[in-house]
């Protein structure tokens, strides 16, 4: 089955580095279709050229997060959810494309959808775990939620609760990186999407609660005992020297893409 990987992304100093790391992981994954959604008013040349030479099968979309939904300089990182409009735009594209195909041709019936942020670290094994998802599959996520890892707790092959340090009573206390959904299930529930107004920590639940119950979750990665994805975050590079040189008129050549 094809895996549709949905990635929101936005322009910043580390963007090309993040996309390079991500794409070079994806190049090792068979039957992967990357849906890269820019948080931008129009597609940027950097991302367009990057994708064109990536060697991947991809779809390039864009939607700008409205200003009132976007974090402002100085806001705490948890105030507003990120990547919401972009993931919903990808879901819209998948549904539209499926409808246009009218059952014939792509997207294939048994395809799987995964939401992969551009800064996380993904093991190749993760994609083989999710590939045979019937409805919604789940697994542990490393280095997230202020913990070594979070995970669904499995008993007799079923998810019975979640190991998490924060608000375990959420409908689905799972990070975005910790689940995949079958395309069929998303097409059968045409209204299911992410709710950007959901309370902090409830973004994943806002999609999943319209698709599945805890009993219906399919535990992967050896019954959720293996960490195959890490919620890494990239440090913001310091530009003190650059700014000093720019003032002297000898900053790094702006024509060199970084
Ligand atoms: C955590 C979760 O892992 C995310 O899935 C969730 O969207 C996020 O919290 C949230 O609270 O909304 P975190 O590392 O804090 O992740 O978020 P980022 O990695 O900064 O952003 C998630 C995705 O959205 C990334 O792919 C990023 O490139 C994208 N993004 C971020 C945008 O498209 N626009 C932005 O302005 C910021
Ligand atoms: Mn992140």
TrEMBL record:
Mn(2+) binds at residue 119. GO terms for biological process: carbohydrate metabolic process; cartilage development; chondroitin sulfate proteoglycan biosynthetic process; extracellular matrix organization; heparan sulfate proteoglycan biosynthetic process. Its EC number is 2.4.1.135. Keywords: Disulfide bond, Glycoprotein, Golgi apparatus, Manganese, Membrane, Metal-binding, Signal-anchor, Transferase, Transmembrane, Transmembrane helix. The active site is at residue 204. It catalyses: 3-O-(beta-D-galactosyl-(1->3)-beta-D-galactosyl-(1->4)-beta-D-xylosyl)-L-seryl-[protein] + UDP-alpha-D-glucuronate = 3-O-(beta-D-GlcA-(1->3)-beta-D-Gal-(1->3)-beta-D-Gal-(1->4)-beta-D-Xyl)-L-seryl-[protein] + UDP + H(+). GO terms for molecular function: galactosylgalactosylxylosylprotein 3-beta-glucuronosyltransferase activity; metal ion binding. GO terms for cellular component: Golgi membrane. It is a single-pass type II membrane protein. Belongs to the glycosyltransferase 43 family. This is Galactosylgalactosylxylosylprotein 3-beta-glucuronosyltransferase. The gene is B3GAT3. The chain holds residues 73 to 330 of 330 of the full protein.
């Amino acid at each position: 089955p094809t895996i549709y990987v949905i990635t929101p992304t936005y322009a910043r100093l580390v963007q090309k580095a993040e996309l390079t790391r991500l794409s070079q992981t994806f190049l090792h994954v068979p039957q992967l279709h990357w849906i890269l959604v820019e948080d931008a008013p129009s597609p940027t040349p950097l991302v367009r050229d990057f994708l064109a030479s990536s060697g991947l099968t991809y779809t390039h979309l864009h939607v700008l997060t409205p200003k009132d939904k976007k974090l402002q300089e100085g806001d705490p990182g948890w105030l507003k959810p990120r990547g919401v409009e972009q993931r919903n735009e990808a879901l819209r594209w998948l549904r539209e494309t499926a409808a246009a195909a009218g059952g014939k041709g792509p997207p294939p019936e048994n395809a799987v959808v995964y939401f992969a942020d551009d800064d996380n670290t993904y093991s190749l094994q993760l994609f083989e775990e999710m590939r045979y998802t019937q409805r919604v599959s789940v697994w542990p996520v490393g280095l997230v939620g202020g913990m070594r890892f979070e995970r669904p707790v499995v008993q007799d092959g079923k998810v019975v609760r979640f190991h998490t340090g924060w608000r375990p009573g959420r409908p689905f206390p799972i990070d975005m990186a910790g689940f995949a959904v079958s395309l069929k299930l998303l097409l059968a529930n045409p209204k299911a999407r992410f709710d950007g107004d959901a309370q902090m920590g409830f973004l994943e639940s806002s999609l999943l609660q319209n698709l599945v119950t805890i009993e219906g979750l399919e535990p992967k990665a050896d019954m959720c005992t293996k960490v195959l994805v890490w919620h890494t975050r990239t440090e913001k590079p310091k530009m003190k020297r650059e700014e000093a040189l720019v003032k002297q008129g000898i900053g790094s050549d702006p024509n060199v893409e970084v």
